[in-house]
Amino acid sequence: MISFPSKQPQVQTTIFTKMSALALEHGALNLSQGFPGFDCAPALQELLQHYAKGHNQYAPMAGVPALRQSLAAKTSSFYDIPVDADTEVTIVSGATEALFAAIHCCVSPGDEVILFDPSYDAYDPIIRLAGGIPIHIPLKASNNFAIDWSSVTAKITPRTRAIMVNSPHNPTGAVWSMADLDAFAQVVKGTNILIVSDEVYEHIVFDGAQHASVLLHPELRKRSFVCGSFGKTYHITGWKIGYCIAPKFLTAEFRKLHQWVTFSSATPLQYALAEYLKEPAHYLGLSDFYQKKRDLFSSQFVGSRWKVLPSAGSFFQCLDYSAISNEKDVDLADRLTREIKVASIPVSVFYETDPGDKILRFCFAKEDEVLVEAAKRLIQIL
Ligand SMILES: Cc1ncc(COP(=O)(O)O)c(C=O)c1O
Prior knowledge:
binds pyridoxal-5'-phosphate; 2 domains
């Protein structure tokens, strides 16, 4: 028997894999994992088909120039900032790779990285694999998961290398305001602290708000790796194509890492996206599209014992069930999948220390009939 010490002894299969497998096993409506229940646009499929001819060898390490240029132009016009396609944009295999490469290119053993709970489940293990020490700051549901920036300052030490942030937020749907950017800038000003900003839901912000990207604030932008994903914006999570936008000196280090992870990402996908990105209508309507789904899903719970928590962005709706049951969220999520056949994600798994909240996360990137049917089943539970 060959044995070796696991590098991640405490890590188990992710909750997304677990809940999706359980949903499949029980034939449940799967509102757990965050992916659309509908296909991408036929025009994008046609572009892919077109570029599958003659574009099947390695792409350049930093990404196909046409895609870097399209992305730089799109980002530049959306945020009204200059972005250099050659020195500030790198195409990678999904935001997951961007997060991994960003952390690994700057975090050395013993460095501290601050993150906020509930936090997307990849962050903590990525920091640990780099030898870093994750410093978790818990956010409270009772405070709409807002960040108390003075508590962040108190956690900064001479060993703080980076701060990981995420807006619009998975799992809570919380979004930052421009005031958050200012407060964040005050926290990091005059330090060497870097920022890894996960903005995969940048085009899904509701009620007329504008996405408060760190790219909009010079003090933040000059120290940030902005990690993005085409998967969430164009309904192509299975393509696993993402990117990192960062200043030249950070991009240089990021690419050193990226070349050893995947070297480069799928060539025909990059060419197809390079064309598709040029049309702003392909992403500008996304907030409205998902806001309608949020409103449809949340309106089903009016008058029920489920409490609908605010969802200001992303495609997640959190529901508080404290008036219904005392069960732990992991137990209830499991039971609902088996009994009423609706799968969700328990929010406690995104915390280092379970705050004891009674909250489940539901992905509403699904067909309307699925959302209505799921809600119908949920309001009947005892
Ligand atoms: C907050 C957040 N970051 C990163 C990712 C991963 O994105 P990708 O599929 O592009 O790797 C996800 C996917 O669910 C996410 O929700």
